[in-house]
Amino acid sequence: MRALTVAALMMFAVACAKENANQSATSSSTATSSGGSVDLTGAGATFPYPLYSKWFSEYAKNTGVKINYQSIGSGGGIRQLSEQTVDFGASDGPMSDEDLAKAKGGPVLHIPTTMGADVITYNLPGVTTPLKFTPQAIADIFMGKIKKWNDSRLASVNPGVALPNEDILVVHRSESSGTTYIFTDYLSKASPAWNASVGRGKEVNWPVGLGGKGNEGVSGQVKQTPGSIGYVELAYAKQNRLAIGAVKNKAGQFISPSVSSVTAAAAGVAKTLPATTDYRISISDAPGADSYPISSFTWILVYQHQQDAGKGKKLVDFLNWALTDGQALAPPLDYAPLPAEIASAVRERLKTIDSAGTK
Amino acid sequence: MTALPAPALQKERRHLRVHQAEIGDRIYEIVTTACALVIPALVIAIALAVFAAAWPAFAKLGLSIVTSSEWDVAKGKFGAAPAIYGTVVSSAVALIIATPLAIGVAIFLSEFSPAWLRQPIGFLVDLLAAVPSVVYGLWGIFVLVPLLRVQVMPFLRDTLHLGSTPLFSGPAYGPSMLAAGVVLAIMALPYISAVSREVLLAVPRSQREAALALGATRWEMIRDAVVPYAKSGIIGGIMLGLGRALGETMAVTMVIGNRAEISASLFAPGYTMAALIANQFSEATNDLHLSALMAVGAILFILTLIVNAVARWLVWQVSRGRAS
């Protein structure tokens, strides 16, 4: 009988722990940990975390300014910035107008810091030449309209490749992620049918396929299942030597994803950027012969009117450093540096940050 | 259920206290009472917080959150039916696999095992409970799922010709309700076997000796004298395992395929409520989305309450049956 009472309590505990763990995941990060004084705190996107942590440690070495960053996800970053529990947020997707209106500290600036890309990875035993994909083909595969690998829409752009008569298994991310946002944002631009039926978002209602958790979940599934296709972050694909497809860009060229072709995409967009832009811009499907089309900025989010002049200055100093010296640290970690013209334009924008904010 | 004559006992206690004025006893009583009250208070507080956060979603979406199968954040549609179905089915599969295995282990350890083997096997089975769930998930992705896809699923479908039944039809991708059920079975097994073993060991020696004295074989003794005596405890163990299976998040998310669709086939990917919350919570910015996830949490809460109630009822039935 006692065993059952214990059982009952444990079940409650299990059920409760699940809810609680999720709640505390967002609230606990407001507490700054780690010994010594922390000068700035931030929270948000996981995708740029390897680069950001490198930045923070290098910056602390050079200037003594300590920055504590919690990689809790873009959504959490936006929420915490809105609630003013952190000094800056970070996100892989831009804040919506609705999000901006809810931010308690006034106007929020989007500061692009680096760029990432999604790559198409697949598992076709016996196919060694990198496959080429048109935007339409990618959309049709992920909508379940292309079901076989030897479909004429794939074969026509891959002459000389013996594509098997096998079913395509689509693998996508199961959890909300910036990676999915970049991918669906691109497909929404490249395919009207996708835009109308599925649309863009950090998670969407996938017409077909399996959900894998995280980059490792998707790539693990693709690696093990012959005939499967998925999308993962560039840095992840490079470091794990996955099979990578080339994608046809706006200029009609098939481009393989790389640090330089992602930077080229941003440079292509920069030329058309109005001076007043708030940098909430998508660089997917960018113009330019060398642009890799499934690319995106990732942003640090800061209030234009800082509450604390001292902190505000530290934050601006750090961002200036990240946009200049910091950029050189990006390529070794497979992040694409910002094109020089964008970096300097963003640094101009940093000058508009003042300390007129109030609590 | 041993009903204590509570009022009489309290009166007795008060009487003693007045006469002896034992301040230590009083403090001890207050401390233990506080401890006992904190847990129920915590449960109620959590339930209130979850339901309060879930209320906007219930108010806006109504019953459709339970009945609809469409979960589309961009369109503001939140139907958790596939996740509710997946939670129930994956846990049921887990129990179907784990219960006979765990009770077998428990009976072996309590009745047949030589003393020198009992400790190590018991320890190793208990150790299963200490493995972090993310490790089960990784093992699932890299070992179990390929094994299911290449060996087990074709065997079930083609060799045993079960492919014509809806339960085992369709293509075998690997990540599936079956994979989730197997991983959950392994995770629930130590709970069931540990409780069952202790309960079986607690069966009085006289019970066994009486059965043997009446000429029962060893098998008959276990079947007719030992297991019935321990039944309510074993059911308690099974319910503990079920609780583990219902709430498990990480390992399930990694192997179930995370597809919000109700399919009769165990080969098809599915979704569970815990996996849905874990997958989407960190990136949910829109209020209705957050509230809908809390509503899913509330439904999971209610489901575990129902399971508890059923368990209580079962045990009550069983112990009443024994008394008569």
Question: What does this protein structure show overall?
Answer:
The complex is a heterodimer of chains A (359) and B (324). Chain A has 359 residues and is an alpha/beta fold. Chain A is built from 13 helices and 11 strands. In chain A, strands 2-1-3-11-4-8-6-7 form an 8-stranded mixed beta sheet. In chain A, a hairpin with a 5-residue loop joins strand 9 (246-248) and strand 10. Chain A starts with a helix and ends in a 9-residue tail after the last helix. With 324 residues, chain B is mostly helical. Chain B folds into 2 domains: 1-61; 65-323, MetI-like (MetI-like fold, Orthogonal Bundle), CATH 1.10.3720.10. In chain B, 76% of the residues lie in helices and 1% in strands. Chain B has 12 helices and 2 strands, in the order αααββααααααααα. In chain B, strand 1 and strand 2 form a beta hairpin. In chain B, helix 4 (81-112) crosses helix 11, helix 8 (205-213) runs antiparallel to helix 9 (218-247) and helix 9 (218-247) runs antiparallel to helix 12 (287-323). The radius of gyration of chain B is 24 Å and the shape is flat. The relative contact order of chain B is 0.14. The mean pLDDT of chain B is 88. The chains are: A alpha/beta (359), B mainly alpha (324).
Features:
heterodimer; A: about 350 residues; alpha/beta; eight-stranded mixed sheet; three-stranded mixed sheet; 13 helices; elongated; B: about 325 residues; MetI-like fold; 2 domains; flat
Number of helices of chain A: 13
Helix share, percent of chain A: 25-40%
Query: What is the alpha-carbon Rg of chain B in Å?
Result: 24 Å
CATH superfamily label of the largest domain in chain B: MetI-like
Q: Describe the strand arrangement of the main beta sheet of chain B, using strand numbers.
A: 1-2
Query: What do the pLDDT scores of chain A average to?
Result: 86
Please report the first level of CATH classification, the CATH class of the largest domain in chain B. Mainly Alpha
Category by helix and strand content of chain B: mainly alpha
Biggest chain pair interface: A-B, 55 and 69 residues
Based on DSSP secondary structure assignment, what is the total number of beta strands of chain A? 11
Q: What's the quaternary structure here?
A: heterodimer
Q: Calculate the terminal CA-CA distance of chain A, rounded to whole Å.
A: 56 Å
Residue runs with pLDDT of under 50 for 5 or more positions of chain A? 1-35
Spell out the helices and strands of chain B N to C.
Answer: HHHEEHHHHHHHHH
Mean of the pLDDT scores of chain B?
A: 88
CATH architectural label of the largest domain in chain B: Orthogonal Bundle
> Count the helices of chain B. How many?
12
Looking at CATH, which topology of the largest domain in chain B would you report? MetI-like fold
| Sheet with the most strands, sense and barrel status of chain B | 2 strands, antiparallel
